[in-house]
Amino acid sequence: MIQVKGLTKYYGSSRAIYDLGFTIESGQIAGFLGLNGAGKSTALKILAGYLMPTSGTVSIEGIDLLNEPEKLRPRIGFLPEQPPLYPEMSVRDFLGYLARLRGYPAGRIGARIEEVSERTSLKEVLGAPIETLSLGYRRRVGIAQAMVHDPALVILDEPISGLDPVQIVEMRHLIRQLGGDHTILISSHILSEVEETCDNLILLREGELVAQGTESDLSERFNSALSLRAVVRGALDAAKDALGALEVVQEVHSEVLPNGDAAFDITLLRDEPEAIASSLIAAGLSLRRLEAGQNQLEGLFLQATTGGGAKP
Known about the structure:
Blueprint: E1 2-11, E2 14-24, E3 29-34, H1 40-47, E4 55-60, E5 63-64, H2 69-72, E6 76-79, H3 91-101, H4 109-119, H5 135-147, E7 153-157, H6 165-178, E8 183-187, H7 191-197, E9 200-205, E10 208-213, H8 215-221, E11 226-233, H9 236-244, E12 249-256, E13 262-268, H10 273-282, E14 286-292, H11 296-305
Parallel strand pairs: 3-8, 3-9, 6-7, 7-8
Antiparallel strand pairs: 1-2, 1-4, 4-5, 9-10, 11-13, 11-14, 12-13
C-alpha cells in the first residue's frame, strides 16, 4: 500500500504542492491527473525518491521516505517522460547494469532480465543496441528498466507519449498486465488512455488534491452528466418533441447539418441511450447516428481541475 499524508513542497517562497494526502492500494493502477502547473511532476519526483518534500510523509509497504530513503528507493521504479537510456548499450547489458545499481541479487539478475523481457516483449531485441530500436521498443525498455529490480511501486510519466495508435494499444495492454504484480502510478495528459487503463484517479489543482476515486465515484461526486449526439433525418420539431418528452433527458441542443440532417446534443440524467433511440424511431424519424458526446472523463477532469466541486 502507498500512503501519502500532508505532502508539501516549496521552492523558496513558491508553493508547488500543498497538503497532499491519498492512498493507493497494492496492485492498483492509479492515474495522476492535473493541468500543466498542477504539481504532478513535483509530486512524482518526491514519490520516486528524487526530491525531498518540505513536509509530509510517503510510506510504501510501511517504509517511510523521510526516515529510510535508502531503504525505500529500491522499492520504486521510475520511467520519466524522457527515459535516460544509454543508446550504445544493448538492451540486456542496460537492464543488467541498472539491476546491479539498484541492488538486485547478482545471482538472479540473468533470470530476472529474461522474465522482464518476456513480459515487456523485448526478448527478440535483448542483444540489440538501444540506439537501433524504434520509439515503441525504447518505451518498452524504459518500462523494463523501471521494473527490473522488482519494485513495489512503478511510476510511469507519460508512457505513451509519441507512440502511434498500434503502439498505444500494445502499451495499454502491457500496463494492464503489470497491474497486480506491481502498484502502478501513471501520469498522463491523454485522458482516454487513463480511462482505459486505470482503476483509480487522483486529480490535482494548483498543487492541491481535489478528488480521488474511480471514474464512477467522481462522476457521482461532481454530478457529471452523460451526453449523446443523435443525428436524424426527418422533421426537426418532431425530434425535439420526442426528446423533450423523455424524463431521462436533462438538456437538448440542436443544429441543422449541411446535408439537411438534424443533429442533437443530448445531456442525460442516466445512462439510457436506448431510450433516446426508441423515442426517435417511434416518432417516425430515421436515426442516422447515435454516439457518445463529450468524453465523460474529460468532463470530470475539466470540472475538477478548473474549479468545479469543493476540495476534500
